Amino acid sequence: MVAEVVPDRAQILHLMLIYQREGIPDVAYHLNYADEDIDKIAVASLISALDSFGGIDASDEDEASTNALETIEHEGNLVMIEKSKHFMMALIVTNRSDEVAQRKILNSLLLGIEQKYHDIWDTWDEDISVFETSMFDVLIELPLKPVSFDYIVRAREAGRPLPFNSREVGKAVVEVKSAIESNETVGGLVRSLDIPREIVIGCLQLMNQYGWIDFKVELGPTSHLKKIGVVDEDNPYGDVVIKFVDLCDGETSLEDVVRKLRVSLPAMKFVATKLVLDGVLEVVA
């Protein structure tokens, strides 16, 4: 018998929506999940060059499908590519352990994007910023950061410029940012705004990534936490945190979980807060 090595869960590094204008790739937008620099034009050009040799096929309909070229390597990472009638979507990940699920998401997103813009082509002025609004659909399925309605939102003094050109995106961000002053939690913010929830959550993810806001969460001894993610085995807190997360079933209070582990409540409360903000735990009560 040969033991099979199961790779760690794939980390998403980058996502790009690419539109090809007369065979020349244009990156409609790029989402950076890892805060690592990437030459998005070079990656898009590589994908386009391979596509020009018939490597990527899309169906005659508006559905997304691929054929010969599905995955390429770039700087030690994997680039999964899906193509629809007008677009290609590239997802750069650390390994292919979640490939089946991630490809389903990419295909679903591309189908939705084709439907979203199906009636613009006859009058389109070739301004690719119009496609940036589909980014909010992407951020629901592949979030930059999990955002709970229980999170407390705090505005910061200044953030980095958002690398997007769409007036609709800019307007949504400004509207959400303006409402933060009168709303403490994400839930309150969503309820106070007359714009779709996915756009509010998407704006918050972008503003957090570019330093416009911070998230906080208040935990107490009677808080009930539930495991929704996995702790990295190389985490700086050791095995006790892995055991702690496994014991968080949504029915046991924080103080009771800590009591089972015989560790300090203040220390574990600090760690639990970070785990909630990292999307490993969620607050259920």
Report on the structure:
The chain is of the alpha+beta class and 285 residues long. The chain has three domains: 12-141, Beta-Lactamase (2-Layer Sandwich); 152-216; 224-283, Arc Repressor Mutant, subunit A, CATH 1.10.10. 36% of the residues lie in helices and 20% in strands. The protein has a five-stranded antiparallel sheet with strand order 2-1-5-4-3. A three-stranded antiparallel sheet has the order 9-8-10. α4 packs across α6. It is globular, with a radius of gyration of 21 Å. Residues 1-6 and 59-68 have low confidence and may be disordered.
SSE layout:
Layout: E1 12-21, E2 24-32, H1 40-52, E3 71-74, E4 77-83, E5 87-93, H2 99-116, H3 135-141, E6 152-155, H4 167-180, H5 186-192, H6 197-209, E7 213-216, E8 224-227, H7 239-247, E9 249-253, H8 254-261, H9 265-277, E10 281-283
Antiparallel strand pairs: 1-2, 1-5, 3-4, 4-5, 6-7, 8-9, 8-10
Helix pairs in contact: 3-6, 4-6
- Briefly, what CATH class of the largest domain? Alpha Beta
* Main beta sheet strand tally, sense and closure: 5 strands, antiparallel
Order of helices and strands: EEHEEEHHEHHHEEHEHHE
Oligomer: single chain
Question: What percentage of residues falls in helices of 4 or more residues?
Answer: 25-40%
- Rg, alpha carbons: 21 Å
State the secondary-structure class.
alpha+beta
Estimate the global geometry from the Cα principal axes.
globular
Q: CATH topology of the largest domain, which one?
A: Beta-Lactamase
User: Which blocks of ≥5 consecutive residues have pLDDT under 50?
Assistant: 1-6, 59-68
Mean pLDDT: 87
| Count of domains | 3
Strand content: 15-25%
Order of strands in the sheet with most strands: 2-1-5-4-3
Distance between the termini: 47 Å
Architecture of the largest domain in CATH? Answer: 2-Layer Sandwich
Count the E strands: 10
